[in-house]
Every structure is written in C-alpha cells, then in structure tokens.
Amino acid sequence: MVKQIEGGVTAPKGFKAACCAAGIKYVGRTDMAMVFSEKPCVSAGTFTSNVVKAACVQWDKKLVDSGEALHAVVVNSGIANACTGQEGWDACDATAVAASEALNIPAGSVAVASTGVIGMQLPVDKLTAGVKTMSTTLSDSLQAGTDASKAIMTTDTINKEIAVTFELEGKTVTLGGMSKGSGMIHPNMCTMLGFLTTDLAIEKSLLQEALSAVILDTFNMITVDGDTSTNDTLLIMANGEAGNVVIAEHGPAYDLFYEALFTVCRYLARRMAGDGEGATKLFEAKVVNASSKEDARTLSRAIVGSNLSKAAIYGCDANFGRFLCAMGYSGAQFDQNDVELFFESAAGRLQVFDHGTPLAFDEDLAVKILQAPEVTVFVDMHEGSEEAVAWGCDLTYDYVKINADYRS
Amino acid sequence: MVKQIEGGVTAPKGFKAACCAAGIKYVGRTDMAMVFSEKPCVSAGTFTSNVVKAACVQWDKKLVDSGEALHAVVVNSGIANACTGQEGWDACDATAVAASEALNIPAGSVAVASTGVIGMQLPVDKLTAGVKTMSTTLSDSLQAGTDASKAIMTTDTINKEIAVTFELEGKTVTLGGMSKGSGMIHPNMCTMLGFLTTDLAIEKSLLQEALSAVILDTFNMITVDGDTSTNDTLLIMANGEAGNVVIAEHGPAYDLFYEALFTVCRYLARRMAGDGEGATKLFEAKVVNASSKEDARTLSRAIVGSNLSKAAIYGCDANFGRFLCAMGYSGAQFDQNDVELFFESAAGRLQVFDHGTPLAFDEDLAVKILQAPEVTVFVDMHEGSEEAVAWGCDLTYDYVKINADYRS
C-alpha cells in the first residue's frame, strides 16, 4: 500500500537539499536549488520533445544516457539557458565542475536544469558562487526539501512537492518529488522541471521503464497553454538506501513502486495544471469508453487544451459545443451520435449532450457546477472501453497579463 | 493582370444578394444573407476537417459532390446548427425548400451555411420567413453585397469583402468574395465561412482544383485561437456570364484565374486574422529557406499559433525565445544553429537571433517595431529554398472577455 507522508525530495533516506538567492535574475527571493545524495544514484529521465532543446536538457540527456552514477542536481530559475549556443553549454559545464569541486564528486555525476527566459545567457560567476554556498548548507531536513521546491518556481504561485512510502520485504521505501511549471506547459514527453528522489534499490533500465510509462498518464496529460517548453526535464535518482533487494525484474515489488511513482507524478501534474499561469481553477477532462487508449488521451487533451473551452470554464459558461468542437479536431475519429457529455464538480453533475442531440438543462445548476475550484468535463464515447484523464486550467485575463510582459 | 475593384459577391455579372434581420438570435441587426445567380453555377467547395461537422457542412458537401448546378446560398449568423442531430438536418432541408419555392429553383441547388453557437437548434419558422423576405429584395448592387457581408458577421468587428477583375480573350472576368471569422479560427482545410462568386466560365473539376490549391497558402495559413471550427465552409459559384471560352485545361487562362483567386483569398484571410477576436494587430510569420514547403508552412503556423508568442506580440515584448520554442515543438525538424530571426514592421527591421546565438539588440527599436498595427516575425532557416507566410493576431484581455461569455 502506498501512503502519502510529509515532505518532498529530502524525505527518502540519504538525500539532502539546499537553496540560495544567487541573484541570477530575480531580486529578493531564492533562485537556485540543489539535491544531493552521497551514495551514488541510479538515474532515469525524460526530456522535452521540442527540437529546440535547452543546453541543460542536452547536458542531462547525455548524462542519463551514459549510465554513470548521479550524485547531484543543480537547478536555477529566472533564465532558461535555451537558445544560448556554445556559451550555454559552457555554463552547464562550469556549474558541474563547481559542484564537483565543492562536493568531491565527479563532474559527470552532476545534472543541471534551468527555467525562465529563453535566449538570455546565464551569469556564470553567480551560478558557481551559488553552487559553493549551497554545498555548505545541504540538509536532510524536510524543510530543506520544501525550500528547494520554492527556489525553482518561476510564475508558479504555489510550490509543488510530495512524498510517499511503501513497504517492501519489511523495509520502508520512500519516494519524494518536487516540480515547477505554470506557463509553457503542454504535454509532450513531459512538460516541466521535476525531480524525484527515492531510497529504493532498482536497476536503471527498470527505473527508466517505470518513469517513461508513468508520464504518459500524468505529466503528459496536462496542458496550460499548448506550448511545449525547450527545457522540460523530469529526473529520478534512486540511491538504494532503503536496503531492499535490488528490483531487477517485473513482479509485485516493481508494481508497488510503479503505483508509488504514479501517485507522486499524478499529484505533481495536477498541482501544476491547477496552478497554471493566471488560472482560477483546475479543469479536468475524463473520457471513457473510447475505442483506443490513444484516442482517449487525444480527446481528453484536446478538451482541456482548447482556448475556447478554457475561456468558457473561466466564464462558468456551459457552452458544451466548444468541447465537442475540440474533440472533433483532435485527430481522433468518432461519431458524434454516440457521444454523451456531462459537467461535474463537487456541486453536482449535469448531462448536456445525449447521442448527437443537445439537451435542455438547468442553467443555474450548470453555473453552480462550473463555479467550483475543480471542474470536470465527463465524456462517454460509447465506442469502446478505454479511458483517460487530462488536466488543464481556465484561460483568464491574468494569463494574458503575465505573458504580455514576462521577460522584462 | 489582376486588378482590385470595388465591391464583393455582387461585383461579378449575374449575381444578386440580399439580407434581413430574421431575429434568429441577435437583436437589432441583420442575421441572414442570400447570394443568388439566376444562371446555374458550377460550384466547388472546401469544408472543415473537424470530425464533428455541422449539419449545414454535411448538406453543402453532399451538394457540391453531387455535381448539380448551384443557384443560391443561404447563410445565417447567431446559431451554428452544429451538434443538433436530425433536427439540424431538417432545418437545412426546410431552408432549401423555402428558397426553392420562393426562387423557382431546385431545392438541390441551394447551399446553406450557419455560424454561431454550437449545440442550439435553429428556429425554422424564422429561418424560412427570412428566406422569403430576402427572395423579394435580391439586388445586384454593390451595396447589397456589402450588406450581405455584414449580416454573416458574429464576433467580427469589420466585414470582409473584395472583388477583382482580369481580362480574358477581350472579356472582363470578375471575381468577388466575402467571408467571416473571428474566433474558432485555425487552419485546417479552411477555417471560416467564405463565399466567392465569379462570372468566369470554367469546368467544375478545374474550379475545385484551383480552390483546393489556393487555400493551402491563404485560409489554411491563418489562426486566431487554434480551434478548428465545426462549420468551416468556403464555396465558390461560377456562372459563366463573362462569356469567355470555358476553361477546360491548364494554361495561361487558368493561371490568370488562379492568380485572381489567390489575391481574393489572401486578402480575405489576412483581414480575418487581423480581425481575430480581441486582436489589436495583425501578426505575420514569414519563414524562408526551409528544407520543404510543408516545413515552411508548419513553422510559420506554429509561430503565429503559440499563445505565448501572441501574448508577447500584444505586450510588444521582443521575447524571441518563444518563437523559437514554438518552431521547436511544431513537428518540423531543424538545427537551431542554422536559424536567423528578425522582427519587422513599418517601423523598421531588427535581427535578434543569429545561428544559435542571441544578439544584443536595441530594446527601444524593438518596442517601436512591435507597436505597429502589422508585425512580422521573419525567420531564415538556411536549410533549403522553400518559404511560407502565416497570419494570426495577438492574444489580449478582450479575447478572454469575449469568450468567457460568448453564448449568453
């Protein structure tokens, strides 16, 4: 059984974190974070599918692919280190070298990640000074994990962290994570910065397999604005300190870990969607009885991805035609005469479309349902047995405000 | 030589138009339009690729495919007649029958089109009464064409019409058109209501070939919000009254008509993009030296389609990383180290990105360029010789305002 506990990346045994205000771009707040395990970690990662990859994404991808042990991740917010040419790569290298010297670990065991403005160079002096500072303040306290999760925020309004435990052969295994992401969020591979830590002992290939599978129904199912970032990175570090027998094959132990990983990623993904730039509510689409899993995912993502749907959710307008329209251009094939569509929230449930025909419905109840902080569009396709859930947020004046002047 | 003249759908010989206030949904404005040619017309059309097709789209597609002559188009604004089941189809039929009786033409020669709220039934009595009224007020005056182009507007703030002429074998051929579209606009097949009239004599298959080719670089290259409508329809009627020898094969006459058609469609498409819901400016992306035509189209469409790019254009923020990011997730493959990116407008031209490296640039000049009413992002891919242009608009508070409460 997977159980949620307090904390984030420092909840698992042997993981420390730190953060600092390095003055990279923001004033009066922390903007660098570090996660560290003295014991070498097996790692896995998923990265943006954007052709324009940030320097740090290229750095981490190379590192994870190399199979070398991972000891530390250094993250900065404010500047994305994307579209920065050779100078951007050199900044990654300088960061890793600084961490290597300060922590007495190989430079090749240091992952780096950045988030913020694209097309601006990182101030390398401030970056390496920050690394040195953090190396002296690393702590395994839960607070250190929480502080790290705050330092990596950009336009996020809340930090995102979670930790869960489960029992394996009488040993307690812990899995913790933090993520950030509010704008430039759209499902494709994974869409954010996310860092997961676990004291589980597991083989690298199985760790990667679990991570790659879990994101399909978690991070890949969220969207804020349809823009797939240049920097999306999800890393997991497993240091084996729980003392379980190394998971080397599929079976009950793998399944239990998979469930824990799913719980953590789903939680972080939902938190990111609900904290989308300018959002006032979490907007969920659940599609059931689709003819294939891929169709279910495509349809639910199209619903939460449509600007018109998002604006209707913001305005509490039960304009269900927009959801059907989005499903129609999603790429999935279906017959509108099979479809039923409902609005759901804590305030109630209301059917508005029944097998091709619009229903007369109670507008007051519709508004009440749509005013809730978490709103679901539930669609029964009646064409198969597959289902999927996608998460987004409403489109508001504040989204435009934030993004009409983000850089300066 | 193709020459622009005054007028719209009534500019070509033998075409009449009318409109009326049928009271379908709007109050105090016209909401129905009719275009009529006593002489039977060869027709061609392109329709939405959305799986959820409005009843009228299915009606018109059947009509155009049948090869029967076309005499009239009846359009209403306010209600889209989409997601309306059998009752929606019956409304199309009743409209065509009413026009057939009033104009003494076959019901199978009447196209119908609707635009407005999805999932609401049309009031058939008002619709057929409107048809009767318009049948008695048809006029070939230019004003009648203009009035028709106003009656089909929904959230549009300006009407869109144009007419051009060219000489063929000593005969003057005229081509006119009108279109509407402001929200739920995204290139896929064609994305709007558009009605073109011409007195050219041409074979049906060539008319369809020209129309299908021209939309690829005109209507299919615009986007307002990424939402491909359920109702997109572009129809052309050719009645042959110019008296030219019927165009039956490729050659100089076809090429001249093609140029005229391109001019008309490009004009209407640009007008629609610049009048996107809530827009304050026209946002153009020109991509040159791409490795394929399809890549050039994909890249330019991604730039004008990105919410983040659109918000930056609204805020006059030269945040060029967002444009590169959008190119990166577009699906086109390229190397960022080949790319140059410029901002252009009547106020000047400014390079901001050079072969993978961001350039220091004059921020004041950038703001000046981006404040113009028509702004271009110019991208040189340096990977081939193909180019494309796409048009969109900025993302503003007003877009959210309009769409948070459009239905009620």
Task: Give a structural overview.
- The structure is a homodimer of 408-residue chains.
- The first copy, chain A, contains eleven helices and 15 strands.
- Helix content of chain A is 33%, strand content 28%.
- By secondary structure, chain A is of the alpha+beta class.
- Chains A and B meet through helix 2, helix 8, helix 9, strand 13 and helix 11 of A and helix 8, helix 9, strand 13 and helix 11 of B.
Topology record:
The structure is a homodimer of 408-residue chains.
Chain A: E1 3-5, E2 15-20, E3 32-47, H1 55-66, E4 70-79, H2 85-103, E5 110-117, H3 124-135, H4 142-151, E6 160-168, E7 171-180, E8 193-198, H5 204-214, E9 233-238, H6 252-274, E10 282-290, H7 293-305, H8 307-314, H9 321-329, E11 340-345, E12 348-354, E13 357-358, H10 363-370, E14 374-380, E15 386-393, H11 397-404
Parallel strand pairs in A: 4-5, 8-9, 10-14
Antiparallel strand pairs in A: 1-6, 2-3, 3-4, 3-9, 6-7, 7-8, 10-15, 11-12, 11-14, 12-13
Helix pairs in contact in A: 2-3, 5-6, 7-9
Provide a brief overview of the structure.
The structure is a homodimer of 408-residue chains. Chain A has 408 residues and is α+β, with helices and mostly antiparallel strands.
